[in-house]
Amino acid sequence: MSDFDNYLSSVRDQYEDLPYPARDxxxxxxxxxxxxxxxxxxxxHYCFGGRQNFQNGFRVLVGGGGTGDATIYLxxxxxxxxxxIVHLDMSxxxxxxxxxxxxxxxxxxxxxxxxxLLNISPERFGSFNYIQCxxxxxxxxxxxxxxxxxxxxxxxEGAMCLLVYxxxxxxxxxxxxxxxxxxxxxxxxxxxxxxxxxxVIKTSPDTNWYRLGRANYPGPDDNDAEIYELLLHSQDRAYxxxxxxxxxxxxxxxxxxxxxxxxxxxxxxxxxxxxGNPSEYLERAMSLPIRQQQEIAELLGGLLLIRHTFxxxxxxxxxxxxxxxEFIPFIAHEVITGPELASYVDxxxxxxxxxxxxxxHLETGMALELNPGQWAKYILNxxxxxxxxxxxxxxxxxxxxxxxxxPSNEELFADFRELFDFLRSIDRLLLRHSSVTV
Length: 438
Description:
Radius of gyration: 23 Å
Number of helices: 18
Strand content: 15-25%
CATH topology of the largest domain: Rossmann fold
CATH architecture of the largest domain: 3-Layer(aba) Sandwich
Structural class: alpha/beta
Oligomer: single chain
Number of strands: 12
Distance between the termini: 44 Å
Order of helices and strands: HHEHEHEHEHEHHHHEHEHHHEEHEEHHHE
Shape: globular
């Protein structure tokens, strides 16, 4: 039995013919592709209590790394550390592209392994602090076997990042897959099947579920690898929020934190999805345990969650704590600065007659009416990714008009909490301990 017999041969052949995602190594001289979950500061915030320095032989496994998006991004961030990244994939064609991309950047901290994810073992690979495996388990005949292989090489205090398809959000995709299976019984030729998929997408009626979800699904002009991956794949399954909890939390004893690409945890919060005035059913939803809130949000959001992206840890207390003055707040995934954000909040407060403002984030589409607190503009104005909350609070207490009755740390944290929770829910304001420089 070969190393790859535990995969469907059609899956292996697909990625040899159509390396995924489609990437041109020459583009590395133009830009660095950032993968949402693999920002070191974000991994640190959610998985290591904000105290990880990514030194001392930090090891990363990218399982099913494909053409290298996550591998390249992580390796670039870890370039000046002693960390090691292991890129594993069953497609030689995909690894070749990833290696070319790494060579363009002069990255030397990556080890390359051409093998099946299901052949991972502690004896061969040792153990890892961080395992990244996105878009892989849902293409296995036995996702549980894949998860167990990954878990076997995870350090006790380590963390995983997984991405699997979302069943509810992909309703239109699965109907399109069924349609294409009915059409393609006469051919196995990839080019013919891809062209048929493009033609169906272009000509389907407005009532077609896939067309109704086109803002979230691939269009007819996407590249061949993208079309084949989502509409013609021979092995594809998806999950709901309850199914993920049953599998990974109840059965495996892991702790889960969802972070949807671009939107953070917000699509899993009913309060962030409901339009108009608060209603009785929203109050009811928000009174339920968190996993039921997230189940309701997935059903409310419909097309919003076509995938589930999340961190897994064996411990429950791995998020950086809000309320500790030794932690540094920093802005993630945005080009906006703290002073610019302070100016926006201050302007909205001045226009408000109720003291509440509408925080509306255009990129995510998320909006929430909240009380930003009386100290928000002063706190935000000092957020630069270098000052700790303690430093910021001392600066505020040093302002002449506040010297007479200076606010305590506890008062400032409580006052800023609601705004912090919103910005953290969309993964735009995160924390690291002041002892950490990365």
